[in-house]
Protein 1
Amino acid sequence: MTPEELRRQFPILGREVYGRPLVYLDNAATSQRPGAVVDCWNEMTSVRNANIHRAVHRLAVDATDAYENARDAVREYLNAAEREEIVFTSGTTASINLVASSFGEAFIGEGDEIIVSVAEHHSNIVPWQLLAGRKNAVIKVLDIDENGALAVDSLEKLISQRTKIVAITHVSNVLGLVNPVKEIVAVCHSHGVPVLVDGAQGIVHTKVDVQELGCDFYAFSGHKIFAATGVGVLYGRRKWLDAMPPYMGGGEMIDHVSFAGTTFAPLPEKFEAGTQNIASVPTLVPALELAKLCLSDPELVAAEKAVFEFVFEALASDPKVKLYGVPRGTEKVPLFSFTVEGVHHEDLALVLDKMGVAVRSGQMCAEPLMDRCGVTGMLRASFAPYNTMQEAECFIASLHKAIGMLL
Amino acid sequence: MSLEEKKQSVIDDFSAYDEWLDKYEYLIELGKSLEPYPEEKKTDDKLIKGCQSRVWLDAEVRDGRLWFVADSDAIITKGIISMLIDVYNGEKAEDIEKDDFSFVEAIGLKDNLSPTRANGLVAMIAKIKEISRLRLTPSLEMTKEEVAPEKKNNDVLTAEDVKELQPLYDNVVLALKQVYDPEIPVNIYDLGLIYELNINKKREVNILMTFTAPNCPMADEVMAEVKESVSSVPGVKGCKIDLTFEPVWDRSMLSDEARLELGLDYDPEEDEANES
C-alpha cells in the first residue's frame, strides 16, 4: 500500500486550511483517525451502547464483548503474557499516574529513589514528583549527551539500594530517538529495580513486544495511534499489578462491598473503577490493525524511510537549523524538533500554519529538556505513515519561505 | 489623527490584504520597524504574563499623554503589540482606560491567532489598560517621596491626607506640563524648572521655580501662564509662585523624557568613533 492509498482512509486529510491543502505534521500530538475507527465509534454509540460487565440484556452483552475483544487485541499487539495484564485507562498520563500512585503506595517510602530521564514528557515527571512529595522520596535524573542520546552508561551509577523504580520514555516526544529499553531494563533488573516505559510515541513507531523488552510497565494512548481519544492502556506485569492496591475506588473494581470491609475484583477490573470509555476502547481494534499494517507493509515502510531521509537531510544540512536528537544509527523516528537561528519558533509555526502546514511549537510538555538544551522552545514536525513525499517537500519549501519572511 | 481615526486606519490596512499570510507579512514588517526597547527595562514587572512568547511593555507620561514602548522575542507578537501601541500612543490615560479595544475584533486578529497567541493578545490589552489605570492614580509610595517637602511648612500631612491629595497633585503636575518654555520645545516641568511643588491641607499650591537664564525676557508671561494653568485645575484653592535662581538651572536638571525629546544623549562624534 502507498501513503497515497493509506491517506484515503483518513477523511480529514482531504480538507483544506486557508484555501490550501492541509499538510498535517503534528502527529506526535495526536494522529488522525481512519474511517474504520470513526465507524467503530459510531457503531458503539448508535447500535451497541450499554454499560458493560453488568446487565444481562443483549445490548450489554454486545458492548461487553466489544470491550473485552479490544483487551485481547491489545494483549496480542503487545505480546503480553496474559490478558489480565492489560488495563484500560484514559491515556498515557492516566496510566503513569496509576502506577505512580498505586505502585508508589505499596513500594515507595521515605528516602527511596525514583529515576527518570531529563528527556521525559511532563506526564512522566510530575506524577513522580507528586508521589515523592507525599512520601518524602527522591527523584534522580538520567542525563542525555549532546546529541540527545540517553546516558545509559551512567544509569548503573545512578541506581542505589534505595532505587525503587526507573521511569523512562521509549521514544522522546522531542528528540525522536528510540531509547535502548532492553539494555536499560537489563541494567535495572540486575539490581532488582522495575522499569516503567512511557510508550506514547514508541508504540507508534516501533513494534512493541513487552516480553522481549522485558519492561514491567508500558503505557500508551490510543489517540496517537489512530484510535479514538480518551482511551489508553497500561500494561503491567501480573506480579506487580497483583501486589498493587487499587488506584480508584468505585463500581466495577469491587468483589464484595460492605461497611465491615470491601474485597476487590481480580485483575484487570481492580484498576478499572467506574464506567469506562465504552465507545472508544473498541476503536483500538481497527486502530492497531492499521498500525500493524503501517509497520509491516513494505511499500509503506519504504515510503516512510524515504520521507525520513529527505527531511533529515534537508534539516541537518541547513546551517541555520539546529536539530535536536541526532541519531548515531537508525534509531530516529520521523519526528524532528529544531530551532532556527534568529527566528522564534512560534513565529515559524504561525506562518507555516497560514501556508497550510500544521506543526507544533513551544516547550512540547518537556520543560526540563528545553532547559537542558538551553532553549525556550522548539519547532517540531512529526510525520505519520500517511504523510507523502510531496508533503515533505512542501514542508521544507514552506519552511524556507517562512524563514525568509521572518529574517 | 484621533483615536477613532487611528483605529480605522489599522482596520483599513488590514483589510487591504485578502490572504492571512499577507496580513502576517504586514505584522512582521510592523514588528521589525518597532522602536528599540531599553534592555534595562526588560524586567519582570514589565513582562506580560499569558504569552507563550515574551512581551515587555512600559509607558511614560509626556504632556499628560501616554507613550508606550514595547518589545517581544517573537516578531509577529512584536508586530501585534506595535500595532496596538501605535493606536494608543499619545492618548490620555483616561481615554485608553475606558476604551473597549473592539477594533481588535474588527480586524479578525483574535480568530486567526492560535489560542495561546489569542490569550497573549488579551493579556497585552489588559496590560495596556492596567498601565493606563496606574497612571490615573499613582501608588502611595510615590506620593510620600514626592510630597515630602511639604513637611517643612509645619503643615504636617497624615498618610490619609497624602492619599487624598495625590490625584490633585498629579493634576497639578499635568497642568505644569501644559506650560512650555518659550525657547525650548519642552514643558517647564520636564525641563526641571520646578524646584518645589507643595500642596497644603487647604489645597493651596506653592511653587518654587526658576528659569533657564536669569534675564529671561518672557519670565512674567510664563509665570502668569503657570498660575493660570494651575489655578484652573479643579480643587485648587490658590496658587503662589516664587522665583529663585539658587541653584542655577543646568542641563542635569532635565528629566529623562526631556533629554530624549532634545536628543541630548546623542553624540555623533562618539558614534562615529564606535563604528570605525
Protein 2
Amino acid sequence: MNAGDTAWILTSSALVFLMTPGVAFFYGGMARRKNFLSLLMQCFFIACLVGLQWVLFGYSLSFAPDTGMGIIGSLDWLGLRGVGFEANPDYSGTIPHLSFMIFQAMFAIITPALIVGAFAERIKFSAFALLILLWTTLVYDPIAHWVWGTGGWLRDLGALDFAGGIVVHVSSGVSALVMAILIGRRLGFEKKAFVPHNLPLTVLGGALLWFGWFGFNGGSALGANGLAANAFVNTNTATAAAGLAWALVEWWKHGTPTVLGIVTGAVAGLVAITPACGFVTPMSAIMIGLLAGIFCFLAVTVLKPKLGYDDSLDVFGVHGVGGIWGTLATGLFAEVAVNSAGADGLLFGNAKLFLVQCVYLLACVTYAVVVTWILFKVVDAIIGVRVDRKDELVGLDLTQHHESAYTILE
Amino acid sequence: MKYIVAVIQPHKLEEVTQALEEVDVNLMTVSTVLGRGRQKGHTEVYRGVKEVGTLLKKVKLEIAVNEEFVKVTVDAIIKGARTGEVGDGKIFVLDLCDVVRISSGERGGKAIG
C-alpha cells in the first residue's frame, strides 16, 4: 500500500468527476436556450443513476473475475461485496481496492454523458433514462470488462488502451452516431443554422474537461509516478496541438479562427491522446494532437454535412473520430522505451501492435453499434424515444422538466 | 403609409420571414416579447412550488409599408404564422404619419423601403 498513490488516485477520481458537469456545460452552451437545462439535467441524472448502478452491479460486471469466456465479469462483487480497504493486485497493488473502484466509477459516469450531445434537443426524458441504464449495463460494462477486466478477451490479446480511448470515447462516439440516425434530425434541420445560445459556457465546460482530463489520463497510471507524469504531459501537449490545429485550419479555410473551433479542437486532442498517453513521447503527442484537430475538423465540417445525419453536438465527429484516430495512433507511435509494459508501434518496427489495435477497434465498434441499435429499437417500442412535435418546438426545458433556464422579466 | 405590428409564435419567425421575402418585403424590426392571450401558459415547478405562467414568449415584428404593400404583407404574415390553433398571434395595422431615413434625410414614402 502506498499513500502517495492512494492520494493521487482519489484526487484523480474527483478530477474525472468534474468532467461530467464539464461536458454538461460544454454541450449546454451549444444548445438553444429552450433546451439548455435539459442537457445539464441529463448529465447530472447520469451522475446519479450510473453512480448507483456502478456500486450495485456495474463494477462487478466489469471487473469481477471472469465468468469463463472473457465476455463479462461475474456477480461476485455485487454491492461491492469483498471490495474493501485492501489492494487488489490484479488491478493495482498499491492502493485500496475501493479507490480503484471509485476511479473507475467516474469513467462509467462520463461515458454515457458524452452521448447526450447526439440526441440533444429532441429526446423524451423517460426514454432517455431507460436507454442510458440499458446502455451502460449492456454496452459499457461488457466492453470495459473485455479490455480492463481480469480474463477479458481483449486484455489477453495485447491491445493497448491507456485510459479508455475505445472503452470510453469510441464506444460512446459510435453509439451516439447510431442514436442520432435512429432518432432523426431536429425539426428545421438544414433550413437554418442552430446557433449556440451561450458560447462562454461552452468554453467553461471545455476548460473543465481539459482540467479533469489530467485525472482521467494521469490517474490511469494508477500510481503517483513517472508514468503518471508522462501521461499528464502528453495530455496537455496533444490538447494544445489539436486546439491550435483546428483553429489554424479554420483560419485558412473560413477566414477566421473561432472560439467554438479551438475549444472543440482541444477536446478532440484530449480524446485522441487518451489511449496513447502512457505509451508515447511528448513529441509523438504533438503529432497525434495535430492530426486529431485536422481529422475531427474534417469529420464535423465535411463528412457530417455530406452524409446528412444530425449528430447535434458532434459526439461522433469528436469522440468517435478522435477515439478511433487515437487507438490507431497508439499502434503507430507506442514505444517500449516509454512504457515497458507496452509495446512498440508500427513506426518503431512492430506491425503486430497496429493489427491488434485494428482488431480491438473492429470488435468494439461492431458490438457497440449492434447493441445500441437493438436497445434503441426496444426503448422506442416501449416508450417512444422522441418527443412530439409541439414539445420539440416549445423546448425540452419547459416540456420535460417544467423549468426555464432564463427569465425575461423579474 | 401603414405601420404593421405582428405578434407571432417564436418558432414561426423563419416561415414568416420567408413568406415576406417572397412578396418583396425585406425590412423589419424583430424583438422577443412576453404576452398573454387566450393560449394557456406553461406550468413551471421550483422545489415543489408551482408557477402557472400566464405570459408566453412571442416574437414581435414591426414593418413600415406604403399603402400598396399593406395587403400582401398581412397575407404573408398569415401564411407564415398560421397553424389554426389558439396562440398563433395577432396583426395590428396602424396609420403612419411620417418616416425619416436618418442617413439621407429623405422623408415619407420614399424613405420606407
